[in-house]
Design a protein that fits this description.
Blueprint lengths: L2 H32 L2 E7 H11 L3 H8 L5 E5 L3 H6 L3 E5 H10 L4 E2 L15 E5 L2 H15 L5 E8 L2 E8 L3 H4 L8 H9 L3 E6 L7 H9 L10 E2 L11 H18 L3 E4 L7 H7 L4 E6 L10 H15 L3 E3 L8 H17 L3 E2 L12 H21 L3 H20 L3 H24 L7 H25 L3 H4 L8 H19 L6 H10 L4 H19 L10 H14 L5 H17 L6 H17 L7 H42 L1
Parallel strand pairs: 1-2, 1-12, 1-13, 2-8, 8-9, 10-11, 11-12
Antiparallel strand pairs: 3-5, 4-6, 5-7, 6-7
Length: 657
């Protein structure tokens, strides 16, 4: 088969994959646009704290927040928290015996049952003010620790009346951080005031039907809108494998009975959440909050920006807004109103959060898209003159993909194909369009547009492959982010330095470069390039390097001016240098500039690897990066021409002298 016919066939296969991707991309966009309802919530503990600070009732605080806030997060209480708030006093048996000894005339031993007549030195005693709270704590400890025979409730007789007491053989460290139910009076008040309830359940080990029933029975008659989990491990984690799976399945089943989604907290991975989400058939929503540690140093404008971006750029549908500690109720209410109004202007409505709708996908779709990715790889090898090797590798890759699908590893196949797609197409785009011959300014801009469009085929195939709620909710992620940013640069070095240079032996070329005298300017340039590439690698992936304050300020200004800010490494670095390369034409001495220019193409493709970001946002971000980069590219060409004239003038002046 001639290379001409091979290219036709490969183009048809890629076109089929592109058409399928367009369909899947449209379906994803449709689902994202239909999901525009946001729950703005506050923490019940902060509501009570604000009420104390203002000298008001909790109902008064809720009334002030109504119309802006529509959900209240109730964190399951612990004995430790009840003790901190003064609801319970913890005593070891030895302490209580001493108290009874020195207060013999005012405190008498309980006489309600035989066992309670004795105070055990090695037991833990909880003294309450409210018998209702004691009953709740007693029931939760008994069920979650499965040791009711070691938990006894009775009363102390004092000169001021009787005090409810809970005695347990459990050690203090075993009970202080276990969830002991919710503030049911507070939940009823919030419900009566028209707020949704978002319970945040604490973890416990011995999950069974009884403990699940006890925990979830508290919510059945309440307007619950979503269920959160408090700890880094969900209830049941740590049990033997079969029991753990059963516990997580039971947890999901109880959430399903409430007919609400479970909540994933951003930047707070919780062990077991992926399993629960699978049992819920991905009926989940994502929450963003600013941590308590960040709040003292946080400005109000920056906090508003963070919440707005969380909703618009990352599909967050629950916001947990913490009060500013140095602001009163009225000022905090204005702050919440500002968040509400910003989101409303962006087209969002407010209410119980909804999950994303279903998306079409099948194993056949994966095979079609996989064949398009493989065809892209073969086409790249064909353009370089290695069609047979390309066909062999393409077939091998496609068969490997089909094998993974056959054994049920569909998501792994999709992630690997997505990675290959974003490696192949930007590399091929630059290889295809960058020639040795210089271009004029207009042609350089046109080549930049064509190169970008070709690179975006890789992004389109990747988005089609990962168009699934699993990736949109970050239950699974695009694999190989750093590889996707670094390998194309390596491929460009191999292609432009070795493969396209037919006249020079690669080994001799390397030796000649190593033997070449190095001037100070080249050392400086290589040092600058090394720093740029190091920052580039560090600033990729999910755990990025810290962003300096000046850059945050520039980002904020761009966000304000353009609605969606472009990526700095695209419009400020990569795109202008790529346009300059088209203008100059490729020479080996320009290879360092080319590598930095390729960063723009690689970055714009990887923009779409953020599957949790709405497609429309990624498209606007890419477009803004392109037109700004093109503008700066033209300015860079002008600066280059001015520099050449200055350099020519300086040389002439030096020769005359």
């Amino acid at each position: 088969m001639s290379n001409k016919w091979l290219k036709y066939i490969l183009t048809i296969i890629i076109a089929a994959g592109v058409l399928l991707s367009f369909y899947l991309v449209w379906e994803r966009h449709r689902v994202e646009q239909a999901n525009k309802q946001v729950e703005i919530s506050v923490d019940w503990n902060q509501v009570k704290m604000m009420a104390r600070q203002e000298g008001a009732e909790a109902a008064d605080v809720l009334a002030k927040l109504k119309g802006t806030v529509n959900g209240i997060v109730f964190k399951e209480e612990t004995i430790n928290e009840l003790a901190a708030s003064g609801e319970v006093v913890l005593k070891k048996g030895t302490e209580l015996l001493w108290d009874l000894e020195i207060g013999r005339d005012s405190v008498k031993l309980p006489v309600e049952n035989g066992m309670a007549q004795e105070v055990h030195a090695n037991w833990t005693y909880l003294i309450f003010h409210d018998e209702h709270i004691m009953a709740r704590v007693s029931e939760n400890l008994a069920v979650k620790h499965q040791g009711k025979e070691n938990i006894i409730s009775y009363h102390f007789q004092t000169s001021g009346g009787t005090l409810p007491v809970l005695a347990t053989s459990l050690k203090e460290e075993e009970i202080i951080n276990v969830g002991v139910g919710f503030d049911d009076i507070g939940m009823l008040l919030a419900a009566e005031e028209g707020f949704h309830i978002l319970p945040q359940i604490r973890s416990w080990r011995n999950v069974d039907e009884k403990s699940l029933d006890l925990t979830f029975a508290q919510f059945e008659q309440l307007p619950v809108s979503a269920v959160l989990f408090n700890d880094m491990e969900l209830p049941g984690i740590g049990l033997p494998a079969e029991k753990q799976e059963a516990a997580l399945e039971g947890l999901a089943e109880r959430v399903t009975r409430l007919d609400v989604p479970a909540v994933m907290v951003e930047f707070f991975p919780q062990k077991g959440m992926e399993t629960v989400a699978r049992h819920l058939e991905k009926d989940i929503v994502r929450l963003h909050a600013i941590s308590e540690n960040e709040m003292p140093a946080m400005s109000q404008s920056r906090a508003v920006d963070r919440f707005t971006l969380a909703v618009t750029d990352r599909n967050m549908r629950v916001l947990l807004v913490r009060f500013f500690p140095n602001m009163n109720l009225s000022d905090n209410a204005l702050y919440l109103t500002e968040i509400h109004d910003f989101l409303e202007r962006e087209g969002f409505s407010f209410g119980a959060p909804k999950t994303l709708g279903s998306l079409p996908f099948s194993r056949l779709f994966t095979l079609v898209l996989g064949s398009a990715v493989a065809a892209g790889g073969v086409l790249l090898f064909t353009l370089l003159g290695y069609s047979r090797l390309g066909i062999a590798l393409g077939l091998l890759g496609f068969l490997g993909c089909a094998g993974l699908i056959f054994i049920g590893q569909v998501n792994l196949a999709r992630k690997l194909l997505a990675l290959v797609s974003v490696l192949v197409f930007p590399t091929m785009a630059v290889t295809l369009h960058l020639k040795d011959r210089p271009a004029g300014v207009l042609r350089a801009l046109w080549l930049f547009v064509r190169t970008t469009a070709f690179s975006l085929i890789g992004a389109l195939l990747m988005v089609g492959l990962l168009a699934d709620k699993t990736f949109m909710y970050t239950l699974d992620r695009f694999t190989g982010v750093k590889i996707a940013h670094v390998l194309p640069l390596l491929f460009i070095i191999i292609i432009f330095w070795f493969i396209r240079d037919k006249e020079n032996n690669p080994v001799k070329k390397i030796i000649r470069v190593l033997d070449h005298p190095v001037t100070v300017k080249y050392v400086v340039l290589l040092g600058i390039m090394g720093v740029v590439l190091l920052i580039y690698v560090m600033r990729t992936g999910n755990e990025n390097a810290a962003v300096p304050a000046w850059e945050l300020m520039i980002r904020s200004k761009l966000e304000y001016l353009l609605s969606v800010r472009p990526r700095t490494k695209e419009f400020l670095i990569g795109h202008p240098l790529m346009i300059l390369m088209f203008y100059l034409g490729y020479r080996d001495k320009y290879l360092p500039l080319l590598l930095v220019g390729v960063i723009g193409q690689v970055s714009l493709v990887n923009t779409f690897a953020h599957i949790h970001t709405p497609l429309l946002i990624s498209l606007i971000r890419t477009f803004n990066g392109m037109w700004l980069g093109a503008l700066l590219g033209v300015i860079l060409i002008g600066m280059f021409l001015v520099w050449r004239r200055i350099e020519k003038y300086l040389k002439a002046a030096a020769e005359e002298s």
